[in-house]
Design a protein that fits this description.
Layout: E1 2-3, E2 11-14, E3 21-24, H1 34-39, H2 44-50, H3 55-59, E4 65-68, H4 105-132, E5 135-143, E6 163-166, H5 172-188, E7 198-200, H6 208-216, E8 221-229, H7 242-266
Parallel strand pairs: 3-5, 5-8, 6-7
Antiparallel strand pairs: 1-2, 2-4, 6-8
Helix pairs in contact: 5-7
Length: 267
């Protein structure tokens, strides 16, 4: 693992990055820099529920990946820079996050440094991939589906697939067959907890990381923004279901050879 110094010590790279498929899990982190932690009043359990715990373990089936450790409540790496730091409750689902109600300018600027460090570190890695031809970045997230409370029924499966594949900003004319192959391989994988219901753009279409890659590497970069429904854990208690997490890992791993084949056809 390569870890960068300074502000970017929250960003590390695993693998040699020689292949055309890489992964991120930018909301998996839970750590906060000390001055941000001191200013925060948000209950840690509630913060954990809005983060994407264990998505780094799902992404770990990809040998070449980015590891980020900071919480989205320090800097949200999947939002545009102007929206990346939650300063007021309306920025983050109405949650009261900061001791004085609003984040100070000084702490705000420090969080933007965290944000900039991520993209500054990622850019040269992806530049090198792009020089070799088309590549896929798997942007791994998770989402809550029991918003009405711990004892309330889950949201309907019809609107909440096990894996939402966000492709809102990619070049469908070029990468459409790759997307279809990927979703088909997810659905067809032989898994202990049953097949994964994978559908495209049902609830999420991908956000800033996808936009940034597609804008920077047109007709070369392909981001699949993967939102795994939190059936692998209890989103209210935080309790992990290892078998279901393994199901997600194995499903994603089973779809990787197809991505390599489809990228080979584009080279």
């Amino acid at each position: 693992m390569t870890t960068l110094g300074g502000t970017s010590d929250a960003v590390a790279f695993v693998g040699d990055w020689s292949g055309p498929v890489v992964a991120t899990s930018v909301h998996a982190g839970h750590e906060l820099r000390p001055d941000i932690a001191a200013a925060m009043v948000l209950d840690e359990t509630e913060r954990f529920r809005e983060e994407d715990p264990h998505t780094d373990r799902i992404a770990a089936v990809v040998p070449d990946r980015v590891v980020t450790t900071r919480s989205r409540f320090e800097a949200d790496l999947n939002r545009p820079r102007r929206e990346a730091v939650y300063r007021r409750p309306e920025d983050c689902w109405g949650l009261e996050v900061w001791r004085d109600g609003v984040l100070s300018d000084e702490l705000f600027e420090g969080s933007l440094e965290t944000y900039d460090a991520f993209y500054d570190a990622l850019a040269p890695r992806l530049d090198a991939l792009a020089e070799r031809g088309p590549f896929v970045l798997l942007d791994v997230h998770s989402y809550n589906h029991r918003r009405d409370g711990a004892d309330a029924p889950p949201a309907p499966a019809s609107d909440n697939p096990e894996v939402n594949v966000g492709t809102g900003s990619l070049d469908h004319d070029l990468f459409g067959p790759l997307v279809e192959r990927f979703m088909g391989d997810l659905r067809d994988a032989s898994l202990g907890c049953g097949p994964l219901d994978a559908r495209e753009n049902v609830a999420f279409e991908g956000r800033n990381l996808a936009w940034w890659v597609h804008d920077r590497y047109p007709r070369v970069g392909c981001v699949l923004a993967l939102e795994f429904k939190k059936t692998f854990m209890d989103e209210w208690s935080g309790e992990l279901d290892e078998e279901r997490l393994r199901n997600a890992q194995e499903g994603l791993a089973a779809a990787l050879p197809g991505l390599h084949e489809e990228l080979g056809r584009l080279r």
